[in-house]
Amino acid sequence: MRHLLSTAGLSRADALAVLDTAEEMDAVNRREIKKLPALRGRTVVNLFFEDSTRTRISFEAAAKRLSADVINFSAKGSSVSKGESLKDTVQTLEAIGADAIVMRHWSSGAARQLADSGWVRSAVVNAGDGTHEHPTQALLDAFTLRRRLAAATGEDLVGRDLAGMHVVIVGDILHSRVARSNVWLLATLGAKVTLAAPPTLLPVGVSAWPCEVTYSLDEALDARPDAVMMLRVQAERMGGAFFPSAGEYTRTWGLTDERFARLTAGSGALLSEPVVMHPGPMNRGLEISPAAADSPRNTALEQVANGVSVRMAVLHLVLNHDQEVRP
Fold first, then answer.
1. 147 and 66 within one domain
2. What's the pTM value of the predicted model, to 2 decimals?
3. Long-range contacts of the stretch 141-144 (C-beta < 8 A, 24+)
4. Which of 5, 6, 75, 234 has the highest local Cβ count within 10 Å?
């Protein structure tokens, strides 16, 4: 795997290779000394043109635990604010010695442009590009679901996909790169995916995605899914009114206390206790109630912890793509 740009083109074999490698990285993260020499002498640059907490810190921790040198680059306060182009910025970073560039950018397709342009020889990892994709978030979500599935069934994790699972993704699909990456990856791994959102928050062409669509959250919950993934309402990307009011959104699309209480396993569910997922940050009281946010069934913090293991696996694989994938 030379780059990680999208889950839409990620094969089942590559996805399982990341998840299986992440299991071994997770074992490292449970040790007293959380360190591997796998990337000693390599330099990873976190190039972030948008604000981030979880993703940037997770990638930094992942690279350091693999013994890589890390450079954190923020567009704010850099020459980007003076008008420097993306091409000149990344070529400057590679001249300094970057072996891998982890990039978050406000423009959809920016990571693909960087990888395909020939501007740099570095490995490129997409940490979120506009409203397009966020592949490592989808991988850590799949890792979290696979862990829960193994705990429920007692099956071996290695080589296990998500066949038979049903995941409902709720809310602002239109502006969510997390939703897009999850739809493609979960479908590749054999899961059934249902999108539940108002028509105004669904993208054009969603009918061609490998998922089902419903305009009723209550209907989606009645199907007794294994997991419900609540998405943040991305007000910063909204140029107009996509729903009448915050209160109306919560009543219709929020995971309220009443809806959370109804979230129980059905006859076809693989998990005996359905889980609630959220990529963060959570808008408490808008898309998710405080009770649901603080419940042990909410995997948000588990997802954050798993993100380090998954990103360790991704960095290891893209920087050692011509070697044996096992750490």
1. no
2. 0.93
3. 141/178, 141/182, 141/185, 141/229, 141/277, 141/279, 141/303, 142/15, 142/19, 142/182, 142/185, 142/186, 142/189, 143/19, 143/22, 143/306, 143/309, 143/310, 144/277, 144/299, 144/302, 144/303, 144/306
4. 5
